[in-house]
Every structure is written in C-alpha cells, then in structure tokens.
Amino acid sequence: MGKKLKNIFTEGAIAPDFISNSIANHSRKTGIGGHSIFLGQVRADVVEGDREVVAIDYTAYRDMALEKAHEIREETFEKYDLNCMHIHHSLGKVNKGEICLFVFTSSKHRSPAVEACNELVERIKNELPIWGRELFNDDQSSWKVNT
Fold first, then answer.
1. Is residue 11 classed as helix, strand or coil in its secondary structure?
2. CB-neighbour burial class of residue 124 (10 A; exposed 0-12, middle 13-18, buried 19+)
3. DSSP state of 14
4. All domains in the chain, ordered by first residue
5. Model confidence band, residue 5 (pLDDT cutoffs 50, 70, 90)
6. Which long-range contacts (CB under 8 A, 24 or more apart) does 24-31 make?
7. What does pTM read for this prediction?
8. Of 1, 131, 4, which is closest to residue 67 (Cα–Cα)?
9. What secondary structure does DSSP assign to 33-102, as a single string?
10. 139 by DSSP, 3-state: which?
11. Lowest mean pLDDT, pick from 65-74, 124-133, 134-143
C-alpha cells in the first residue's frame, strides 16, 4: 500500500478562524523568517449584463486531484527551501465573499516562501482536476472558466 495522501479538501468555505489558527500555530516555529499566504475568494462577478454570481459549487476528481497535489507538493519542496507548506481547497458550495483556496508557505527567508506560494497557486489552478459551477442570482448556473 502506498503513502497516504494529504487531504487538501475542505467541505464548503474555508473558515477565517481556521486560517488565523494556522498562522498562529507557526509562531512557535522560530526558524521561520517569512510566510506567504494566498487566499482565493469567490467574487460576485456580473455576467451578461445583470446575472450576479452568488456562489460557486466546486467539484473534483478527488483521487486524481490528491495524487497531483502530492506530486506538486513534493516538486515544490525540492525546488524551494521551505519549512512548511499547506494547501486547502474547498469542495461544495462557497458563497460570494467566502474563501475557497488557502495556500500558506513558510521558509527561513522571504523569497522562497513568496516564490513557492505564487507557483503553487498557478499550478493548482492549471493542473488539478477541480471545477467550479457558478451559481447566479437568477437560479441559473454555468461552469466557470479560469482566467
């Protein structure tokens, strides 16, 4: 049996207290000199004139996404001198204004944390089999296209 893959998924929105606790827990790790954090938030985009996004319903090919996330994680640790890395992505319904992606990197110095965090976000958006269906104020929906 292979290594158990780290679960990156959270059902629904990622709670602000989870994010703040994650940050607070790192204050005991005194070898860290820099953190970089990306928070992805659901926007209330308006499309086709008057249709407003009220939520995004996220779905994924879970097993494949976890395998790919593990691969990305390992490659990022090899490339950058990081102390810690955390990835959390929502599944299910996330309302406008709520957090759907939380990426947190830490390193001895600022640059590796910032560069790794930026690369992780791009790779997550481009390589993981995760899809979002935008839910509109008129009770209609459509699949989101990442830009």
1. strand
2. buried
3. B
4. 9-143 (3.90.1170.40)
5. confident
6. 26/84, 26/106, 29/83, 29/84, 29/106, 31/83, 31/108
7. 0.93
8. 4
9. -EEEEEEEE----EETTTEEEEEEEEEE-HHHHHHHHHHHHHHHHHHS-EEEEEEEEEEEEEETTSEEEE
10. coil
11. 134-143
